[in-house]
Design a protein that fits this description.
Elements (H helix, E strand, L loop, with lengths): L1 E5 L2 E3 L5 E8 L8 E6 L5 E7 L5 E3 L7 E6 L4 E6 L8 E8 L4 E4 L3 E5 L2
Parallel strand pairs: 2-11
Antiparallel strand pairs: 1-3, 3-8, 4-5, 4-9, 5-6, 7-8, 9-10, 9-11
Length: 115
């Protein structure tokens, strides 16, 4: 199993980024997928889930700004982030599984929101 995140970078407040996670070694259509992040000074925190049936769930602080999606044909999951804030700075991780239970996590991609 391998999860490889990409798409991170430096963005101004109010800007947007699209993170992608390429999954290999398993058929993603059979799994819930999620994103988590490590914000400086805080514990690793869950960001969003997408279930096999497409249902999505979000952490309150990013609700309405972030959108998680999946492409089972490409075996990939994405996180579209809009109206980014300073507090969104951190390392973003793709996970196989959901907020409650996951078994693999990628290496992460850095997102920096700075003016």
């Amino acid at each position: 199993v391998q999860l490889v995140e990409s798409g991170g970078g430096l963005v101004h407040p109010g800007g947007s980024l699209r993170l992608s996670c390429a999954a290999s070694g398993f058929a993603m259509k059979n799994y819930q997928m999620s994103w988590a992040r490590q914000v400086p000074g805080k514990d690793l925190e869950w960001v969003a889930d997408i279930y096999k049936d497409g249902r999505t769930f979000y952490q309150d602080s990013i609700k309405g700004r972030f959108t998680i999606s999946r492409d089972n044909n490409q075996n990939s999951v994405a996180l579209d982030m809009n109206n980014l804030e300073f507090d969104d700075t951190g390392v973003y991780y793709c996970r196989r599984g959901s907020r409650q239970l996951y078994d693999f996590q990628g290496q992460g991609t850095q997102v920096t929101v700075s003016s």
